[in-house]
Every structure is written in structure tokens, then in C-alpha cells.
Automatic annotation (TrEMBL):
PANTHER family: ACETATE COA-TRANSFERASE SUBUNIT ALPHA, KETOACID-COENZYME A TRANSFERASE
SUPFAM superfamilies the record matches: NagB/RpiA/CoA transferase-like
Keyword flag Transferase: yes
Protein name from the UniProt record: Succinyl-CoA--3-ketoacid-CoA transferase
Residue ranges of coiled coil: none
InterPro entries: 3-oxoacid_CoA-transf_A, CoA_trans_fam_I, CoA_transf_BS, NagB/RpiA_transferase-like
Keywords: Transferase
UniProt GO MF annotations: CoA-transferase activity
Keyword match Transferase: yes
Native source organism of the sequence: Polaribacter glomeratus
Length: 233
């Protein structure tokens, strides 16, 4: 029986090195691989490129790597919640590649599916298209976007089994599934690790073939990025 379970996050991150490119799942602070990020901070991995929808907040998520000056380049679609990110970008300390959100998701999915590139209308006529091939399809212009190339993809799921099959919950299903299998090694941390055969195959969002290592995470904070409440009437 296939067993991709590793004992802990330390074993899951064996092989990470300075200068690598990492994909990190999640949307805002929802569904981010908290354990993997904390371990990257402890390992003090430097000069890395991070592909993620956003850069966390100042004291949580990828913001922890930014505070520690571990990230050389961020490839993101939304970065508006992080003051340290803004400071590093404006000072020239951090290289930033802003990517339309749908394009970011598709660049992950293309890598997952083995496609080297794809055409999209998003970004045509803007700075996003500068230096890229463009082409007319039926009178509409498209931009050729290359798929991502990453060394590790770190994702977080609600449930998983030792074979690597994953089930996501709610908003965490946004970028996490597309990043599975889109890197040389995909590491999945889960809230609940169940025996093989316990997951309903009809409810599996990502099959285990896209995952190389899986472990049960712990001590999830699950912070809310912006808590807003209605005033009591």
C-alpha cells in the first residue's frame, strides 16, 4: 500500500534549500500551511521565491518570512494587508511580480497538468504583457503566460489519508488544489489524517498522485484577516 505519511513537519521539509522557489496555498489567511511556514522560519531558509495569492499579514503567514528577510521575490496577486511587504517593495529590498489572480491560479494549474504555457486575455495592453508574446484569436488579443516552475508546493487541507488524497474545506479550496502536483515535491499538511479507505472517493478534491508527503499539522491559529462585525441594533 502506498504510504506518503511522514512523522512531522521537520521530516516533510527535508530537502528545502536556499534559493528555491516555493508555492504556498491559501487565500488571505484561510487555508495557509501554517506549520510549513513556521518551520521555514526556524530553518532560516534564505533568498527564496514565494508564489502565493498574497503575502500574509505583518506577524502571521508569509509575513513571518518577510519580517525575517528570507524572501527574495514574491509572485502574488494581492498584497494589500502587509505593511512590511510595502516597505520592502518600495525600498527595493524585495522583488515583486504582480499577477492577475486568475492567471496566478492557471499558471499553477498548467504546471500541475504538465502544460508549459497558455494564452489568456488577462493583462493584454498593460504592464503585465510587457515582453511577452501576444496573439490574435478570432479578433481578440491574448497574452502567452508560462506555467510556474517550483521546487516545493506547501498546501493545507482539512482531511487527508496516508496515500495523499486530500479534502479541502470552504475558501481553502481556492489555490491549494491547483498547487498540488505543480512543483517537484508537494507537501500537504492536514488537520485530520485518516486511514486509507476512510475518505469517500466521491468527496476527494485532490488524488494522492499529486502529493509526495503528508503529515498531520497541529496548533492551527486560523486567524481572520479582517474581522468585521455588525453593530448591535
Amino acid at each position: 500500500m502506498i504510504n506518503k505519511k511522514v512523522t512531522n513537519v521537520q521530516e516533510a521539509l527535508v530537502g528545502v534549500k536556499n534559493g528555491m522557489t516555493f508555492m504556498l496555498g491559501g487565500f488571505g489567511l484561510c487555508g495557509i500551511p501554517e506549520n510549513a511556514i513556521s518551520e521555514l522560519v526556524k530553518l532560516d531558509i534564505r533568498e527564496v521565491t514565494c508564489i502565493s495569492n498574497n503575502a500574509g499579514v505583518d506577524d502571521f503567514g508569509l509575513g513571518l518570512l518577510l519580517q525575517n528577510k528570507q524572501i527574495k521575490k514574491m509572485i502574488s496577486s494581492y498584497v494589500g494587508e502587509n505593511d512590511e511587504f510595502e516597505r520592502q517593495m518600495l525600498s527595493g529590498e524585495l522583488e515583486v511580480e504582480l499577477t492577475p489572480q486568475g492567471t496566478l491560479a492557471e499558471k499553477c494549474r498548467a504546471a500541475q497538468a504538465g502544460f508549459p504555457a497558455f494564452y489568456t486575455p488577462a493583462g493584454y495592453g498593460t504592464e503585465v504583457a510587457e515582453g511577452k508574446e501576444t496573439r490574435d484569436f478570432d479578433g481578440k488579443m491574448y497574452v502567452l503566460e508560462p506555467a510556474f516552475k517550483a521546487d516545493f508546493a506547501f498546501v493545507k487541507a482539512w482531511k487527508g489519508d496516508a496515500a495523499g488524497n486530500l479534502v479541502f474545506k470552504g475558501t481553502s479550496r481556492n489555490f491549494n488544489p491547483n498547487m498540488c502536483g505543480a512543483a517537484t515535491i508537494t507537501v500537504a499538511e492536514v488537520e485530520e489524517l485518516v486511514p486509507v479507505g476512510e475518505l469517500d472517493p466521491n468527496n476527494v478534491h485532490v488524488p494522492g498522485i499529486f502529493v509526495q508527503r503528508i503529515f498531520q499539522g497541529k496548533e492551527y491559529e486560523k486567524r481572520i484577516e479582517q474581522r468585521t462585525v455588525r453593530q448591535k441594533q
